[in-house]
Amino acid sequence: MTLQRAKGTRDFLPEQKIVRQYIIDTLREVFELYGYSPLETPVLERYETLSSKYAGGSEILKEVFKLKDQGNRELALRYDLTVPFSRVIAMNPQLKMPFKRYQTGPVFRDGPISTGRVREFWQCDVDIVGIKKMTADAEILSLADMAYKRLGLKVKIKINNRKILNSILKEADITENQEDIILIIDKLYKIGVKGVKEELKSKKLTDKQINKIISLISIKGSNSKKLKELCKLENKEGLEEIKELLSYLKEFNTKVEFDITLARGLSYYTGTIFEVVLNNDLSLSLGGGGRYDDMISKFMDSKQEYPAVGISFGLDRIYNILVNKNIKKTNTRLFIIPIQTLKESLNISQKLRENNINTDIDLNNKGISKNLDYANKLNIPYVLFIGENELKKKKLKLKDMNSGKEKFLTIKELCKFLNG
Amino acid sequence: MTLQRAKGTRDFLPEQKIVRQYIIDTLREVFELYGYSPLETPVLERYETLSSKYAGGSEILKEVFKLKDQGNRELALRYDLTVPFSRVIAMNPQLKMPFKRYQTGPVFRDGPISTGRVREFWQCDVDIVGIKKMTADAEILSLADMAYKRLGLKVKIKINNRKILNSILKEADITENQEDIILIIDKLYKIGVKGVKEELKSKKLTDKQINKIISLISIKGSNSKKLKELCKLENKEGLEEIKELLSYLKEFNTKVEFDITLARGLSYYTGTIFEVVLNNDLSLSLGGGGRYDDMISKFMDSKQEYPAVGISFGLDRIYNILVNKNIKKTNTRLFIIPIQTLKESLNISQKLRENNINTDIDLNNKGISKNLDYANKLNIPYVLFIGENELKKKKLKLKDMNSGKEKFLTIKELCKFLNG
Q1: Are B129 and B308 a contacting pair, CB within 8 Å?
Q2: What does the alpha-carbon distance between residue B79 and residue B65 come to, in Å, rounded to a whole number?
Q3: Which of A38, A139, A350 lies closest to B14 in CB terms?
Q4: Rounded to the nearest 5 degrees, what angle is found at the Cα of A126, between the Cα atoms of A123 and A130?
Q5: Which SS3 state, helix, strand or coil, does residue B212 take?
Q6: Integer Cα distance of B134 and A257 in angstroms
Q7: Predicted confidence band at B234 (pLDDT cuts at 50, 70, 90)?
């Protein structure tokens, strides 16, 4: 029998999982700094919940993994964390608003496997429900700013507002195919003005309409210059929201770029939208989100309002960048090599652990050179030799695996050195 | 549409998930102190892998959630973490031995839902592969000891060895139904000597056989007394292993109880077996494991030996005990109530976060009493009032939500106080 993984899934071996844990820990620290709390929902959901017309679109529904339990109930593996989040809000009317939560975990899509696409991948979402004001949007963007900074990633945060895009369409008298037109506008960075013009033409827009759109979306310059030029738009709601958002972001010291062409595909967004791209590869999105004020209440069939704004961090893409950066390869600080001193060495290993030093030890009397090779392959930074002589003198030999330098230390000195 | 969870699944709302995170974080800290590294494998596995005859038994196989991908491949949701672990070892011959890993995550069993049983639950496993010596068993038990201590749980660790049970059966001339007899012995604590005798009788054992077994398994007293009395057994391998194990455990300062009746159901164990029970409810198992020297190599169809020993922590049971102990209800330290000072307050919230203080803030101008109620419901220990007066004097009013006491602090003093 040849053992294989399921198609489109990945394993993360220790060196890789340590990087993933580093990312998740860093994100979690930032989420909690902003007062967001963790939530856990199951991987299994009822198919009926995931296929609600207010949940994902039909594109996503095609890719849902379906299954049945022994009671013949239709189940499915969650394809995102937003729909289960909405279900939790619907089922728990006692939750205090605003409800600020984060969640990290695997989601599943049975789609075609092209480069970089897998069928089981992790999402990491942060959302706040119950606040209509732009303060919430600002908080989420500030949180994102701090998160990417702490991960050591240089990013640009681009923002826009769906209402501005709608105003632009209105200004150009476009009443049909609005979603399609918006998706074409979104491509400006990729295909340029000429490309956008051609695609708009294929949607049967008049030259006048096309020129109107192009003149509005190709405004260049600072955020304030763009806002000023867009003042000619009749419906100013989106502009006012962006202005208010920018005024709060100033207090958070969070810099963003107002990008009139940013659209984001999902149709459930109602206001602010944003996307985080890598500074030296603007086409690589590392996360994004926006405001979706209608989705939860429609989904719940409720008359109560559930305004919401959230961001999804692209965990796998962040991982793909950081895994090559030698972030951290081991959690172990010290490897003990007993030399005919197994029991005493076990005893010492335990003392070090009680002093919170991550300690590994040869349990199998492997010999010095094999042990050094092992510690080296596992990237453990220090090795401790414990022979009878060392025990007698109460000074143990510590070797720095990077410099090769050795020194003799008492257990107390060792603890101080490794904890320092 | 009424929104429901899939049958047999649970949500963990923030207050509950915080307790689960506390458990997982504490366990992870201990695992890393002992030099174990994290591993992540997918939830989805090929059905062929999970249904291998060397994987789970037929009892487990009945409960596997099966599904198909769009390419009509047979897949399944993992029912434990041991089989995927074995698959990883099989697929990665480059892994250095010993391989010490831990893994935490959801597993799935489509079984009947009785009290306390769910269909999606988390396992937390620690295993070491590649060491035949009892040092590995001792390390795992010492790790378990420290883990439960750090969780604040008073437990008893019971150990035994499959080889001793086999010797006892041999001594009583039992060659058939060995597994069944062992499972009856395992019930001594629950059903008493009389109950065990009756059940053995129903298996058609002679009185002589029954008396032999009872006399051996009901030896009472200290570990050394039990070892001494069992010296009469012909095959002493198991006894020698227990003696060696106990000698290493002494160095680790880990106390265990040698329990001749402990059997554990799974047939793949080959040597040491152990179980962790709650001190004041000896019938409540909080984890257990043992040595399984044959399973991985059989599973891999390999001639190389893969001796292994591991423990599985009962995350859900540990959670059920700790959730009632008021461990930790929030990660947030401070809630800011701006009084006509929204922008200045946002600015201050950001300064506090940059000083690593988990800070929440009213984003919606809710009024003081509603805000105090919110902070109270969310168990946030401190509230900070920021009015114009406070800003002018550069002294902010901090309220301790437990004592009700208030004091005025500069931002610097506040950081020091909350970080202290």
Answers
A1: yes
A2: 8
A3: A38
A4: 140
A5: helix
A6: 61
A7: confident
Residues 6+ apart with CB under 8 A from A141: A157, A159, A245, A249, A252, A254, A256, A274, A311
| Alpha carbon separation from A257 to A193, A221, A275, A317 (Å, rounded) | 20, 10, 10, 22
Residues 6+ apart with CB under 8 A from A364: B98, B130, B131, B133, B135
CB contact under 8 Å between A364 and B135, yes or no, is yes
User: Residue B415 is part of a domain; what is its CATH number?
Assistant: 3.40.50.800
Same domain, B28 and B107: yes
Of B70, B120, B331, the CB nearest to A32: B331
Residue A255 forms part of a structural domain = no
**A223 belongs to a structural domain:** no
Residues A114 and A44 placed together within one structural domain of the fold: yes
Residues of A in contact with B344 (CB under 8 A): 251
The whole-angstrom separation of Cα A239 and Cα B233 is 87
* Residue A26 and residue A86 in one domain: yes
Q: d(Cα A213, Cα A34) in Å, to the nearest integer?
A: 39
Question: Is residue B7 one of the residues assigned to a domain?
Answer: no
User: What was the pLDDT predicted at B54?
Assistant: 65
Q: What is the pLDDT of residue B188?
A: 86
What ipTM was reported for this prediction?
Answer: 0.93
Q: What is the DSSP-derived secondary structure letter of residue A53?
A: T
Chain A with chain B: Cβ pairs closer than 8 A: 258
Shortest distance, CA A261 to any CA of chain B (angstroms)? 29
As given in the structure block, the two tokens for residue A113 are 């496997």
Whether residues A31 and A87 share a domain: the answer is yes
CA distance B360 to chain A (A): 5
Both tokens assigned to B45: 């596995």
Same domain as B301, residue B186: yes
> Of B3, B66, B69, which has the smallest distance from its Cβ to A87's Cβ?
B3
Burial A110-141 (b: 16+ CB within 10 A, else e): bbeeeeeebbbbbbbbbbbbbbbbbbbbbbbb
Alpha carbon B326 to its chain's center: 19
- Residue B269 sits in the same domain as residue B382: no
Which of these, A70, A9, A78, lies nearest to A41 by C-alpha position?
A78
- CATH label of the domain that carries residue B45: 3.30.930.10
Q: In B111-196, which ranges are E strands?
A: 120-129, 155-161
Does A12 share its domain with A114?
yes
- Contact between chains at A300 and B347 (C-beta distance less than 8 A): no
- How many structural domains does chain A have? 2
Q: Is residue A366 part of a domain?
A: yes
The partner residue sitting opposite A43, judged by closest CB among B92, B106, B374, is B106
- Domain span holding position A339: 334-419
A77/chain B closest Cα distance in angstroms:
10
Check CB contact under 8 Å for B33 and A7.
no
Q: Domain boundary at B297, B325, B353, which?
A: B325
Indicate the residue among B325, B342, B375 that finishes a domain.
B325
- B108 contacts A11? CB cut-off 8 A: no
* Interatomic CA distance for residues A274 and A289, integer angstroms: 6
Please report, in tens digits, the pLDDT of each residue of chain A (420 residues total).
578 999 999 999 999 999 999 999 999 999 999 999 999 999 999 999 998 766 656 677 889 999 999 999 999 999 999 999 999 998 998 999 999 999 999 999 998 887 668 899 999 999 999 999 999 999 999 999 999 999 999 999 999 999 999 999 999 999 888 888 988 998 888 889 999 999 999 999 999 999 999 999 989 999 999 999 999 888 899 999 999 999 999 999 999 999 999 988 667 899 999 999 999 888 889 999 999 999 888 877 788 899 999 999 999 899 999 988 878 889 999 999 999 999 999 999 999 999 999 999 999 999 999 999 999 999 999 999 999 999 999 999 999 999 999 999 999 999 999 997
CB contact under 8 A, B70 and A342: no
Which amino acid appears at position B220 of this protein?
K
